[in-house]
Write a structure and sequence with these properties.
Elements lengths: L1 H32 L5 H19 L6 H21 L1 E13 L3 E12 L2 E13 L4 E13 L7 H10 L2 H25 L1
Antiparallel strand pairs: 1-2, 2-3, 3-4
């Protein structure tokens, strides 16, 4: 009887260890994807987690430190979206290749900045050595829905050639802001 009880406990421990490992992997994936989602998409899982956590805690209070951290992150995300005007609508990531020191992921990203829509597709090559991790963007493809009044083809082709997403988002924010001002001005005179 004693061995069977021990076996049941060992099986339960192994099951819990596997569940912890899966949750840790899911958490890591979510952390990597967190920067790609809009404010609304980001708040949905947070609120779901809060409801789930409150259900598990059976009436116990939500930890104040975690709650404060969530509120801070929500505020920061909202500020960045208002400051840049960039809102992401969708993001997908697919791991193409994964080895011990190298990971290649294909990303698809869409959204808008003020009234300009954009779609990005690129591969992210991450290489890790003993001291650090380096990431390189390859095969960048940008599709922008621009009106007749806006010619962004030179800007897009230059960005695709250099593969610099930071420059793209900085210039997109500025370009979209001035495009919106111009559109409003022309509407005023019509």
């Amino acid at each position: 009887m004693d061995n069977s009880i021990c076996q049941v406990y060992e099986d339960e421990i192994q099951s819990l260890e596997e569940e912890i490992k899966l949750l840790a992997e899911k958490y890591e994936d979510n952390q990597q994807e967190a920067t790609f989602f809009s404010d609304k998409e980001m708040l949905m899982p947070i609120k779901s987690f809060q409801r789930e956590f409150q259900g598990v805690s059976k009436g116990r209070e939500f930890p104040s430190g975690l709650k404060a951290q969530l509120e801070s992150l929500e505020t920061d995300l909202s500020f960045l979206m208002k400051f840049t005007g960039i809102q992401f609508a969708s993001h997908s990531r697919k791991t193409v290749e994964k080895t011990r020191n190298r990971t290649v992921q294909k990303h698809r990203l869409s959204g808008n900045c003020h009234s300009l829509s954009f779609q990005l597709e690129f591969q992210l090559l991450e290489m890790q050595n003993k001291k650090n991790v380096s990431a390189v963007i390859t095969d960048l493809s940008i599709i922008m829905e621009s009106g007749e009044d806006l010619d962004v083809s030179k800007f897009v082709s230059s960005t695709e050639e250099h593969g610099n997403l930071l420059t793209f988002f900085r210039n997109l924010s500025s370009c979209a802001e001035w495009y919106e001002h111009r559109r409003c001005t022309f509407l005023h005179f019509k």
